[in-house]
Amino acid sequence: MNIQSLRGMPDFFPDDLKKWHLLESTLSQIFNAYGIAEIRTPLLESTELFSRSVGNSSDIVNKELYSFLDKNQKSISLRPEGSAGVIRAIIQKKQEHEKHKLWYQGPMFRYERPQKGRFRQFHQVGVEYLGYEEGLSEFELISMLININKQLGIDQYSLKINHLGDVEAKKNFCTALKIFLEPHLSSLHEKDIARLESNPLRVLDSKEESTQLLLKDAPKFEDFISEKSKLFLKDLAQHYSDKCDITIDSNLVRGLDYYTGLVFEMVSEELGAQDAFLGGGRYDHLTTELGGKPMPAVGFAVGLERIIELMNVESSNVPAKVALIIVDEQDNQKTYKISHALREVNLKITLDAFLSNGSLKSQLRRANKSHCNFAIIVGSDERVAGKFTWKDLGEQGDQNLVSLEELLEVYKNL
Ligand code: HAM
After folding, report:
1. Cα of 348 to ligand 1 centre, how many Å?
2. Ligand 1, residues at Cβ distance < 6 Å
3. What is the pLDDT of residues 281-305, one digit of tens each?
4. Residue 238 in contact with residue 34, Cβ under 8 Å?
5. In this predicted model, what pLDDT tens digit does every residue of 226-264 receive, in sequence order?
6. End-to-end CA distance of the chain
7. pTM here?
């Protein structure tokens, strides 16, 4: 039987990747404009890194981690997200006292049930602001997200924000929620009973109708967070209300345990069930949880498979593409020489050297099919004249017989 790819792990062919390259270059251009530097961390980390950051009570660690024992019987895992690895790297380099603005990109792995917009290998681009207290950094990140959407031609979306308070507020609310739900355990789904034990906040996120019904009369999280936090949320919502559809959603808790402070998600109805195309928030206690020195932190990650569905821009400056057509086998040696010389004078042009012979007609057909703008032709006439044909493949179809020097000059100035 033929070997198939693993479920939820798609291949990307050149045509699929055109849009990806445009997305990736737009994002890196934006990060450059905000003075954010790239960081790369490994795909594999100790399993403990994720259980102590993303959290043992999260679905991501509980059910979705790709974990293995390595040859030394050490438990290692494919990263399900990028923040934990970045923080691990900063602690390892003892750089918690410095300020960092970092971005990263790459594949992430979660053993989820694949469906539209949900994969087991998917890609994120993330940004982390490290060493920055709550305040201006949140404003800058939200401004960046609005900018990203604008640059990508995305206008049908909304931004949901919430504040998870400080550790004390979170603890007090969880106790109150537990006391409230205790007499109703029989009407709670077993999933939510487990959540109530491991991370009561996640109950707010429940998809169960009966749970949501019960929650209507439950203590409200917003009654537990400080006035300062509430004001901060309101300020953010007000400040950006003319730039995007921004709402405070007190049920937004996010699926990762490390958050404190602001949390946010961008959603779009165009995506169907998996509607969140990016998410993030503040996580001020992660360095100390992982054994490092205190360092405030806030960031987000964009799901590339999802945002690409919404993207509505075309690449404006596609470089010219030139076909190098050698008709007869006896001229094959020329291919290497000419193509080397051409690429030496202009590396910005795509030179599609057809590494096989064939009739001029069939090779011109191939050049048109692969969207070449010009062709350099070497056939018997050219061989005899010691020249090349430079042919415009556009409507006019002009063509000239040129010397090697003339050809290099034209190519250089394309
Ligand atoms: P997250 O919400 O788990 O946050 O993931 C961010 C985004 O990744 C989601 O909004 C979604 O677009 C995409 N995503 C997640 N799972 C899948 C999947 N199975 N298939 C396709 N796309 C998916 C984080 O990962 C945090 N590390 C974000 C962060 C950075 N918070 C602070 N800094």
Report:
1. 35
2. 81-83, 110, 112, 118-119, 122, 124, 126, 128, 255-256, 276-281, 299-301, 303, 305-306
3. 999 999 999 999 999 999 999 999 9
4. no
5. 999 999 999 999 999 999 999 999 889 888 888 989 999
6. 49
7. 0.91
